[in-house]
User: Fold these one by one.
Assistant:
Number 1:
Amino acid sequence: MQKPKPTKPDISVLSVEPKYIDKFWPLCDFMIAEALKYSGGFAEPRDIKDLLKKDEAQLFLVFGSDEEELNQVFALFVTRIAALPNYSQLEAIVCTGRKRHLWEDKIVNTVTKFAKLNGCKKLSFWVRPGWSKVSKKWGWKAKHIQMEKDL
């Protein structure tokens, strides 16, 4: 039997509409639960699902194939549009995944385009420190850091 040939990476980003959240949730639930463990406990996965279903947040799924895996979910972003007094901004409230090198450019381009289409003037992402190493290539600047202490 011949060994299967490796595939060329083929990655896509899907913006999931609120009416399809239940359908896609089994692909997301465990990833969101894992990400929330590192996010200070601000929400439970069911809270995120409710925000998505009410169209108060947006879900972007990153899926595809690489040299090793076919038809996989590699990452997801959950964003929300914050209407601030002087402008709106797109905020990433959950960002998680693996093999970031495969999808980082596509997700940044996708959410940037989404933000512009929705009248946002800025992107504001709360992400883990690893993103600061790669974000400069997209023109990001570290303006603040978040310090945290539990009481």
Note: Helices lie at 21-36, 45-53, 100-117, 130-134.
Number 2:
Amino acid sequence: MKKTVFLLLAISATSVLVFLLYQKNTAPTRNYQIGDRLDSLNNVVVYYNGGMGNVSGRNTSPDGYNIGLKYQCVEFVKRYYYEYYKHKMPNAYGNAIDFFNKDLKDGELNKDRDLIQYTNPSKTKPQIGDLIVMDATWTNEYGHVVIVSNVTEDEVEIIQQNAGNPDHPRDVFDLEQTDGLWEIDHSRILGWLRMRKSASF
């Protein structure tokens, strides 16, 4: 009986320690206000959103194009594509999960977004500027969408808005090539979308 109690206490103490270490590594290092600048890519800013479900109004362009709900993940990627590429999506609405059409084959045109869609894995390697779409989870039915900010032979760096800890608007995933297919090593990643024509910016 004493051994069992001791074991339970040891497990509890370990759990508390792990939780505290996790909190230390994930808790923001400073106090942020909604709308604070966190990062940027090509001068397009990532803003702090507060809670994951917070909405601070709708962002629209001067000509009425729907950019998205401030400061959700969708708002950042659509603002980036609008400001940097001058790209308007034919379907200007939808959650992150709606950016990926699971009925399309690798390399086909996603007409709702007017972007070429690649599956994960794909014959085509991800590149800077691609949108990566992440699947929904039981805690997040809307999915998540991010932008590729850097690519090497074995890693993909992404930049994102409304991802949780505001200290870390960027993340890095392993990139593998097997049998001619490129795969980003993350179970939620459905694939990536890209501008139809390459351009110099």
Note: The two ends are 70 Å apart (CA to CA).
